[in-house]
Structures are given as structure tokens and as C-alpha cells.
Amino acid sequence: MSGTDEFDLVVLGAGPTGENLADRARAGGLSVAIVERELVGGECSYWACMPSKALLRPPAALREAQRLPGARAAVGDGLDADAVLRRRDDFASLWRDDGQVAWLESAGITLVRGHGRLDGERRVVVDVPGGGRRILTARHAVAVCTGTGAALPDLPGIEHTGVWTSREATSAPEAPGRLAVVGGGVVAVEMATAWSALGSRVTLLVREQALLPRLEPFAGQLVAEALRESGVDLRFGASVTGLARDGEVVLDLGEHGELRADEVLFATGRRPATGDLGLETVGLEPGGWIEVDDTGLAVGVAGGWLYAAGDVNRRALLTHQGKYQGRVFGAVIADRAAGRELDLAPWGRSVATADRTAVPQVVFTDPEVASVGLTLAEATATGRRVRAVDYRIGNVAGAALYADGYRGQARAVIDLDRETVVGATFVGSAVAELLHSATVAVAGEVPLSRLWHAVPAYPTISEVWLRLLEAWRG
Ligand SMILES: Cc1cc2nc3c(=O)[nH]c(=O)nc-3n(C[C@H](O)[C@H](O)[C@H](O)COP(=O)(O)OP(=O)(O)OC[C@H]3O[C@@H](n4cnc5c(N)ncnc54)[C@H](O)[C@@H]3O)c2cc1C
Ligand SMILES: NC(=O)c1ccc[n+]([C@@H]2O[C@H](COP(=O)([O-])OP(=O)(O)OC[C@H]3O[C@@H](n4cnc5c(N)ncnc54)[C@H](O)[C@@H]3O)[C@@H](O)[C@H]2O)c1
User: Which residues form the Pyridine nucleotide-disulphide oxidoreductase dimerisation domain (predicted)?
Assistant: First the structure.
């Protein structure tokens, strides 16, 4: 079967980014087709954010109750792992996308199932399930929102070993007895936390000397301390040099000997899903990240018709940031098609300014890590005159009430010339919900003189804001 269809916009990939971009372009008056080769909803819904957070939330709730005399006795110390896994399955919609397909229909977006490839300017060829091709042409634009897959290191034996990537780590039906995790980034620490709580004996193998290297150093230190206390065997400076499976997995750790485990998760970063996307037909390098300007236009492609949004452009590999780009770029595509004027000033409606200076992220470990904007090191590297102010969150009345022995740390990075907050990091229980206050301060460039008037309620953990301001004033 083959056919040609014309739409104003063709979107490749129906993850959270593609869905939002298609929705905003449709709302702006365009006809939109979206091409998806797997499940509508993308990585986030089925093998990333949703199932991982569903695995992490029950152990977090249990730990919180265990830290409170009176509640501790009521919850005991066990976790019902089967119930956690069943709830995870529900949050992954049992790996079915009917709900999201219905949403696409309600939004008036045409779904084309199959693997899509660019075929020159404003043309997409889709290999449809069951054979055959469908050709889509775009009157105005094509948006690549194809996301990423797990990046595996090039190790002897890896292709025959049956290793876990983030997909297996978020969808496994039961906890392996022994789980080795390779990597020290967000996926590694979240999944080590989850599977350790679900009953696996976890060994975390970190090539570097610290966890979460892109965040403030105290974040990785506090998470490392807590992982060790929860029984994770955390090894820094450990590199896997080869591996094999003989019933169990045998990891060669070079001079550090070998490690045996039932499964091994490689949480070693992401690679863009652009290897088989026809990028060579539009003058871009297959397999590479697609660099874009602040309106989403691909750099190096003439004619102003190719956009890329979400993970695939490498600006910020986070669902909320992909959705933000989807909202901004989808509206830009509709505005350009209609000849409407754009608002290109920093923080204008047509540019994704926040990607550069105000990206929030929560790492759902115990303790949680919530951060936004620049770390002290990043801010210093930009040439700004900055100063960090720090405070122990456990000294705030709200935190002491929240949990006995509350451990946590907060830092605000202050721009000394503008007297605004350019970055903030909170580590501790329940800090995730505190983060948006910092995001508003950073994105809004709220002067410190005004933040004094943003009074945190007593006794909440958010009083840490007051303590940070006091630390700044001295
Ligand atoms: C374990 C894990 C946990 C995470 N947790 C969080 C979290 O808590 N919070 C957070 O913000 N982020 C989290 N992330 C990151 C988040 O998953 C990504 O940032 C997000 O999924 C990116 O969305 P996207 O739409 O750009 O890409 P994706 O979600 O990867 O979607 C891309 C879609 O394109 C489709 N596709 C690819 N190529 C083609 C093609 N040629 N033709 C047709 N379709 C194609 C794919 O099938 C997929 O459906 C996590 C990531 C991992 C791995
Ligand atoms: N809660 C969240 O927001 C959340 C959760 C999970 C993932 N994510 C997103 O997904 C992205 C990917 O996460 P990730 O943890 O896979 O990547 P990452 O880039 O954060 O971390 C990768 C880690 O693997 C290590 N590594 C790389 N190659 C290696 C090798 N050959 N041997 C040993 N170690 C190696 C790196 O040093 C690093 O510590 C992140 O950028 C993050 O934004 C977000």
C-alpha cells in the first residue's frame, strides 16, 4: 500500500514533545500529522518518567513514615514489592497507548503509525506496519521529535550478554536478586534506589569519583551517603572492561577483579534517535544531535522548514523541557505559516529562553535533589560575579517537624551585580515540591530585595528561603 498525503505540519515522534508541539500547531490553525513507530506517549510514559517514579514513590512513602515515631509502628519495615510493581504497570498504562491515541483524535491530529524518515525538503516517507509506504508532504514544516535511546559503551561481549537498559530497569516484572548498575548519573541513582528498596542487592559501579556530576557537589555526596546506608555497595573509580553471561552476568572490572550479578543495568547516557531518519537527505549527519536556534529551527538546513524539539536537540533531556519547547515551537510554526509576527526578545513567546538559564530538575532519590538554573561552577564559568549561600535544611522548624533527623542542604547562587538568584539546589525529603518557587525566582529574575517580601509560611520547609536570604545579608 502507498499513498501521498499533504499536511501543513508533519511531526516525527509522538513522545511528550511531539504531542505538545502538534497540539500547539493545531491550535494555531494548522493541519497536523504525527508519525509514531512504537507507542504514542513516547519513552516518558512507558519506560522512563512514569514507571520509574511509580517504582520510587512507595519506598519513599514508607521511609518517611519510618522516620516518624507513632507512624513507624503502624507501617512496619516491609514493602509489598508485588503491589508496587502492579501499580507501576498501571502507571505505564500496561504498555498500551489507547488513552493517548484518543487524546490525539480529540485534538484533531492525524496519527500515522510506522517508522518515518526524511526524504528531502518537507517530505517524509513512512514504513507502515504490515508493509508498504506512505508519503507525507508538509506545506510548511517538519518537526523531528524522535527522542533518544540508551547509549551503551563499546565493550567486548556486551551485545551477547543481554544487559538491562533504562527500558528493562523500568519495566522488569520482578526484582533480580543481585543487580549491578553501571553509571553515576540520574538513571543510575534513581534505579539503584528503586531496586534496592524492592529487594535487589545492588552494586553501583561509578567510573568517576562522584555521583550526579552535573549538579552541585553536595547533592551527589548526600545521595551517596544515603545509598550506602540503605545497603547499596557503591564503588567509585570502577570501570567495566568486559562482560559475559554464564547463567549469571560476569563483569570484568580490570584491576578490581570481577563482579557477578543476575542482571546488569547500563545507565551510561543517551544517544539521539536519528540514525535511521534520512538526515543525510537534508544535509545533516545521521546519528547526530540536531542543533536548533531558540525558535526550534534546525541549524544548517536551508529554507526554514525543519524543526527539532525535545531530547533530540540536546538542549535539556527532560520531559517538561521538551513539552515547553513543543509549546513554543508549535506556536512559532503556526505563526510563521500564517505570517504572524514573532516575539523574539529573550523571554518572548516565540523563543525557548528558559532552556538556557532556568531548567528545573528533580532526582527522585532519598534524599530528593531539586535544582534549577546554574550551579556555582556553571555560573562562575559564564564570567558572572557570583556568590553561593548555603543552609542546612534540617535547622528549619518545618523540616524538623517533617521528619526526625531530617538531613538536607540548600544552596542559592546569587548574581552579585544584578542581585538575583541564578541557581538553586535543595537536597532533602519533600524538596521536589519546593522547586517551583526557585524556578519562578530564577526565570522571573526576581530581585533579592523583593524576595524578602515573599514570606514563607511557618512552619514549612520553604522557610529555608528566609534562611538563605539571611545568610546572604550576613
Ligand atoms: C529511566 C528514565 C527516567 C526519566 N525520568 C524523567 C523524569 O522523572 N522527569 C523528566 O522530566 N524526564 C525524565 N526522563 C527523561 C525523559 O524521558 C525524556 O526527556 C523525554 O521522554 C523526552 O521526550 P521526547 O518526546 O523528546 O522523546 P521520547 O519520549 O523519546 O519520544 C520520542 C518518540 O519518537 C518515536 N520515534 C523515534 N524515531 C521515530 C521514527 N523514525 N519514526 C517514528 N517515530 C519515531 C519513538 O518511538 C518515541 O515514541 C527520564 C529518562 C529515563 C531514561
Ligand atoms: N528525574 C529526572 O529528571 C530524570 C531521571 C532519569 C533520567 N533523566 C534524564 O535522562 C538523561 C539520561 O540519564 P542518564 O543517567 O542515562 O545519563 P547521564 O548523562 O546523566 O549519566 C550517565 C552516566 O554514565 C557514566 N558513563 C558514561 N559512559 C560510561 C562508560 N562507558 N562506563 C561507565 N560509566 C559511563 C557517566 O559518567 C555518567 O555518570 C539525563 O540527562 C536526565 O536529564 C531525568
Answer: 359-465
Domain 2-41+97-149+271-354: give its CATH code: 3.50.50.60
- Class for domain 367-473, per CATH? alpha beta
CATH topology of domain 158-267: FAD/NAD(P)-binding domain (3.50.50)
In single-letter form, the type of residue at position 246 comes to D
Segment 124-157, tens digit of pLDDT: 999 999 999 999 999 999 999 999 999 999 998 8
Res. 462: pLDDT tops 70:
yes
Query: Which residue intervals of the chain bear CATH 3.30.390.30?
Result: 367-473
Pocket of ligand 2 (CB under 6 A): 153, 182-188, 190, 207-208, 267-270, 317-318, 361-364
The answer to whether 182 and 267 have CB atoms below 8 angstroms apart is yes
Q: Where in the sequence of the chain do the CATH 3.50.50.60 domains occur?
A: 2-41+97-149+271-354, 158-267
> Computed from CA positions of residues 275, 277, 279, 280, in that sequence, does the dihedral angle turn out positive or negative?
positive
pLDDT in tens, 163-217: 999 999 999 999 999 999 999 999 999 999 999 999 999 999 999 999 999 999 9
pLDDT for the residue 4: 62
Question: What is the CB-side half-sphere exposure of residue 393 using CA atoms within 13 A?
Answer: 32
Do 64 and 42 form a contact (C-beta atoms < 8 A)? no
SS3 151: coil
Cell of 441: 525566582
10 Å Cβ neighbour count for 214?
13
Least confident of 242-246, 341-345, 414-418: 242-246
Q: Give just the sign of the alpha carbon dihedral 204, 208, 210, 213.
A: negative
Task: Inform me whether the pLDDT recorded for 3 exceeds 70.
Answer: no
Q: How many CB atoms are located within 10 Å of the residue 96 CB?
A: 13
Strand 233-236 vs strand 201-206: parallel, antiparallel, or unpaired?
parallel
- With 60 as the cut, is the pLDDT of residue 458 above it? yes
Does this model's pTM top 0.90? My answer is: yes
